[in-house]
Write a structure and sequence with these properties.
Helix content is about 5%, strand content about 40%. It has about 250 residues and is mainly beta. The protein has two domains: about 100 residues, Thrombin, subunit H (Beta Barrel); about 100 residues, Thrombin, subunit H. The chain is globular, with a radius of gyration of 19 Å.
Length: about 250
Amino acid sequence: MIVAVAVRRLSKVADEKPGPQDSELLLRVWGMDATGKAFFQNARARNLTNQGVVLAGVEHQLNEGDVIGVQCSDRKARCKVVRVAESGLLHKINVEVQLLENQECPWKDSIPKPAIGAPAPVAAPAPSGRDKRRFTRHKIRFPIEIRDERGGGSHMQTSATDISGRGCYVEMLIPLPLGTLLTVIFWLESQKMTTPAIVRASDPGVGMGIEFMGLSDEVQQRFQQHLEKLDDTRLGPKGPPQEPSQEP
């Protein structure tokens, strides 16, 4: 279910003239538009920073507060729409988005380097104690089984795309409602694990965040170590510690 948010029309999200932060970079964006329809398209990136970007030429109506997916090359992240403005082109808008907490910046390699003598960009503030996540999330495909515990609920076999010892994110067009109680089943090496879980984030057109509620501290630690072995994109347990962040 989409919660409608009034669109605050601004005359500009980004200067229409090319600026130092503009690029020819095309980003893949997707999600659920204001009419409840799923969309997928490419949009030109403007005003690239390590915290957000302006998506120019979006062909689908979005509202402030919507969560959409953004992909650059093989890197994906979830972003929140913070501003929407007319682009000056028929049936197209410019959309400013910010990365959600815990999301790595997919376009970080395309951010223009500051000019010599220019002040360095301000780093994003570290998450507060209550917002920190206990375990590092691993962006790997991990097979899980999900059972909706509501009467007559769904039963699906899928893969998490973002997972840790405490929870995961599953990409899907029509996620289950916030607060839905689930049973999640997966394999920890040769051991079959079953845990109650709950939907903590529901992003129409993008996916849902799930918190595991029945794993002991020992099992969480074992599972986290197992994920680190599977994730060849990180340094693993022998590397420098990763900064924890928000969702479970």
